């Protein structure tokens, strides 16, 4: 199958380099394609809206197909195998009837009977093999096109043709590769990618293509009012732009498949786009830049006992979503979700198993609760234990929390922390920067008092 795809992609490459003048605009919901057709073959999709010289044109289905394309090969193979299957079924029925009518008086009964039995077995094996191939071809069409029949323009006289159809899926994601680490800094490469999956049934060969990372709105001929909606999205601000993938020394007349340039406003141009309808994902780099990031270890003991690598940086370009694939050395972490905080972007990637974290409540403090006038007082706290079980030293950021009152009848006071490397930030955020030498243990003891009116009950 890979050889077949490679053959047709090579054919497409030669066609594009030879001077195809096609253009295509790909939106998330629809495709506008102006192909440079050499015949009136459209593809394997009867839902394509066609305009021929400005007028609506009809599509018709045909059984014969003499075109060269990815699905054309499988269609013709399917036709050939279907005919072969019919012949095999006929042969099987004929042989089976002959076997049933062999008379006992025949001189060579046993030899003849054995030959027919063997022939039936061989025919049945061939039928099973052909059915398996037909099923594989059926699966190819299911993942690659809405129809398994070829459709043609009803007219062959069309100087200006435009196709409108759907069936190309966008897969937008980000990648981050840590190139080098020095103390608490890292050199990273941030890349925004898009994967295009063509399941439309129409092969796209375009000298000039535009990719719109949005739905089709305000398109010529489709102007209509739509409400101006405001919704939550991270990140929302405009970041500095980075250049797209580096240009080669080839001129614009030379063939460079997939050369991508940003036009701003979430629009990208792709030179010499080759996108066969094969149901597979074809990746393009939309933006790429090397930046420096803060790099370290972090743990949230009140949420998890795990230690993560924390990477914090300024995003060099707009992001379409917050899903990432991160590579650190030989390790790859997928489906990592990032977040924007105080104009910086943060990712937690991969657990570190050299450090053990534990957090236990100090129950003995809670038992000292009692009545003081018209107030109740509870003394409480917890103990965070960090253990470095390796022969390396680490600097780890510990994030925990202190209770914060949301009611004037409740006060949190007398907060005590036994470690000078800890401080309390806004909203009760406890932040500690702890250095753990090899095989060292460090305890962080936190205590506090909650004072509240005796006529209320509290929860924390």
Describe the protein.
- The structure is a single chain.
- The protein has 4 helices and 27 strands.
- With 460 residues, the protein is α+β, with helices and mostly antiparallel strands.
- The protein has 3 domains: 75 residues; 176 residues, no CATH class; 99 residues, Immunoglobulin-like.
- The strands form 4 sheets. Strands 9, 10, 14, 15, 16, 17, 18, 19, 23, 25 and 26 form an 11-stranded mixed sheet that branches. Strands 5-4-8-2-1-11-13-12 form an 8-stranded mixed sheet, with helices on one face. Strands 20, 21, 22, 24 and 27 form a 5-stranded antiparallel sheet that branches.
- α2 runs antiparallel to α3.
- About 10% of the residues have low confidence.
Q: Give the overall average pLDDT.
A: 84
Instruction: Determine the structural class based on helices, strands and strand pairing.
Output: alpha+beta
Which bin fits the share of residues in helices? 10-25%
Total DSSP helices: 4
Q: Indicate the proportion of strand residues.
A: 35-45%
Task: Profile the largest sheet.
Answer: 11 strands, mixed
When the domains are counted, the total is 3
The total beta strand count reads 27
Using the alpha-carbon principal axes, give the shape: elongated
End-to-end separation in angstroms reads 61 Å
Q: Pick out the low-confidence regions.
A: 7-19, 219-225, 230-256
User: How big is the Rg?
Assistant: 34 Å
